Fold:
Amino acid sequence: MSVTAAKGFTAAGIVAGIKESGNPDLALVVNEGPRLAAAGVFTSNRVKAAPVRWSEQVLKGGQVSAVVLNSGGANACTGPLGFQDTHATAEKAAEVLGGNAGEIAVASTGLIGVRLPMDKLLPGIGKAAAELSAHGGEKAAIAIKTTDTVHKTAVAQGDGWTVGGMAKGAGMLAPGLATMLVVLTTDADVDAAGLDAALRSATRQTFDRVDSDGCMSTNDTVLLLASGASGTVPAADAFAEAVRTVCDDLARQLIGDAEGASKDIRIEVVGAATEDDAVEVGRSIARNNLLKCAIHGEDPNWGRVLSAIGTTSAAFDPDRLNVAINGVWVCKEGSVGEDRDLVDMRYREVRITADLSAGTESAVIWANDLTADYVHENSAYSS
Amino acid sequence: MSVTAAKGFTAAGIVAGIKESGNPDLALVVNEGPRLAAAGVFTSNRVKAAPVRWSEQVLKGGQVSAVVLNSGGANACTGPLGFQDTHATAEKAAEVLGGNAGEIAVASTGLIGVRLPMDKLLPGIGKAAAELSAHGGEKAAIAIKTTDTVHKTAVAQGDGWTVGGMAKGAGMLAPGLATMLVVLTTDADVDAAGLDAALRSATRQTFDRVDSDGCMSTNDTVLLLASGASGTVPAADAFAEAVRTVCDDLARQLIGDAEGASKDIRIEVVGAATEDDAVEVGRSIARNNLLKCAIHGEDPNWGRVLSAIGTTSAAFDPDRLNVAINGVWVCKEGSVGEDRDLVDMRYREVRITADLSAGTESAVIWANDLTADYVHENSAYSS
Structure:
């Protein structure tokens, strides 16, 4: 499964020694062709890690022969020397694998503001190359984990072709993508423009609507590589749907494994005048710390939902807002609705529906609760 | 001190029985004249509590003879009946005190979405009126507390006149004012327009730059009442400065008593192209949950500061950003700076300086850390 579910790809995940823990920390994904088409979506954070700046340049060419991914260090805020480290990584991979460094994408994840141990990373690329395999997808997915408790893979089958992928991410999940690295592969025969269209459409409705903790990373990278090895040119709609399915699956896995979370919150905004309004309201609810605490406490505190809606510029009349929590309309027309004691919040998934009574558009945003475990994980992370 | 520091005001704080705890929950502040000039600033949340909607109307007249404040219930999201409750509160106060209900402001704080127990609140107004005193300011400040651990008062002396005030607030502190009720009084002889100018200028630089948890309340109310009892017309500048001093003092007290906080974080953004840029960057830093956790863990994690800056639209070059934590420039030119081990974070106050290297403007935003205690307080609040 994972990035080797589609034909024409090999992958590996190994211990390069970047992490002090001795856990796997370097992954390689190689497109064996015949095609090398690729598209990418990156963080919208203006403070971008060196590998993001490098890979953005690589993707402009629309061709990627291999991706080098490391955990154990983000290589963000490391200045010109950090950028040189990324460049050296691509050069080393080109030397080992053959090919052109300008077609090798690099992705990093871990602590910001620390240089990578290049004396370990560079030899690791050779080691990984020696272990490349058409069954290496799982190992690659494992090697990109940071505080993830499980590795994340997904796959969708088309008519004679396949889309597969892997993701890491836990915390710093927010619009403009999460602290996440995602590599998707397909053996469908799709050119770079077709990959770009499918990927942008998919991420807009999946990864971009995941908001674990409101924080936007410096390193988010989502790549889609096509080998064309199936020899099949898919219908654009079917291909886009398969990419969206894999992205949606991975996005849900990210939320389900977010740092310290005890609840996954599905926020559906309906009755919006525009989709943008629905997304803005959904994100405002998703980022409200007081509400996130209330959900953690299994308290159907709809007043905090209304407070969050009230901070947006979306079209609505406060006296026509309705809110349901797990199917119980606890707020009707901006005031007290059904009995809040009817809301059963024992399960991990909590569904909030906010009806703006202002139109017919809707959107779904996924978030997490705010917990003492989140505080603990993130107050001790770099020390 | 408090609202009775200035001449021409009486106040009271009593137990009306609104709170189940039996703690004081009703305050009355009466302007005994000769003037009844007033100004007010309210939450910018579009979901406004009934007392906010009422008091906004009252303030349009520029005259306030009395303010009724209750804790134990926000009277927000309570529909038309909730508005009738606020109206009845003002009518009752007018009946007891004499005067016009249209000149009586009302402020409420507590849980959203619950009707107030009017059978307790209305008799409480009579009880409070019987206890009005020129020394009642402290008791009034105590009666408006919710999860505040201490009551908050401040005073500034002018040349022959005084500005005093009280505040409550703990949590839900964010731009557009905090979950706070603030009543300021002065015996200076200033008309409503003069009060309005001084109050808006002061709140813009004080309460509006406090951001404890990113959440904006439905009930925020800041009132400034002038009795003219000193017989002195102050210089506009001196008066504005006194109002700003009292607001600043109260705002700092709010941050110092925010729910569950263990650190007060002073975020100073310098080198900004515009003051708006400085404020936008300051707020983005103030609201970054990952940074707030790091500060709680006494971890000078400047990478999270840069991540937060990167999400703004302010003018800056990522490679020219500098960040100091408690005076140590841990980030220079977007990369590693002085040794982070030099940063001493043992004390409650933590100072972050973010230099955008893009101009000469600056702003200070105050925030709190994110703690397990915050999660605990806000996950158990309404259950």
